[in-house]
Write a structure and sequence with these properties.
CATH superfamily: Protein tyrosine phosphatase superfamily
CATH topology: Protein-Tyrosine Phosphatase, Chain A
Strand content: 15-25%
Number of helices: 6
Helix content: 25-40%
Largest sheet: 5 strands, mixed
Strand order of the largest sheet: 1-2-5-3-4
CATH architecture: Alpha-Beta Complex
Number of strands: 5
CATH class: Alpha Beta
């Protein structure tokens, strides 16, 4: 599993397996966010399977699916709320991590400048420069 740390309290990852979650809890993660719609790929685990595994491992689970490059205001707001109220380390995942880091940049739960959000994403291996104008809104 490739977990990319964005900050001390936030990381993103590609698709996870239920078996990976106990190790994430040992690493200090207490909240798991799935940004994949169910059925996106044949080999992905359904959100309810991941919810059960997360809760069994001692994590809180949130399903905030986004698809097709669209980031509805409701999804951005929900993601921001989860991040602000987490009270611990958050790991968000999707197919590659790109949707998760994009949601975080759009939600801007830490109130960072556009440049700082682009720099954080870039340091984690994600180029969000094409979203600069959206981030400035």
């Amino acid at each position: 599993m490739t977990c990319k740390r964005v900050t001390d309290r936030f990381a993103v990852a590609p698709q996870l397996s239920p078996e990976a979650l106990p190790a994430l809890v040992q690493d200090g993660f207490s909240v798991l966010v799935c940004n994949r719609p169910d059925g996106e790929d044949d080999d992905q685990h359904a959100a309810e399977v991941m919810r059960a595994a997360a809760e069994s491992a001692g994590m809180r689970f949130h399903h905030i699916p986004v698809a097709g490059g669209a980031f509805p205001a409701e999804a951005v707001a929900a993601f921001g709320q989860v991040r602000r109220e987490a009270g611990g380390k958050v790991l968000a995942y999707c197919r590659t991590g790109t949707r998760s880091i994009t949601l975080d940049a759009l939600a801007n739960p830490e109130g960072l400048s556009v440049a700082d959000r682009l720099e954080q994403a870039g340091a984690a291996g994600y180029d969000l420069s094409a979203l600069a104008s959206q981030l400035a809104e």
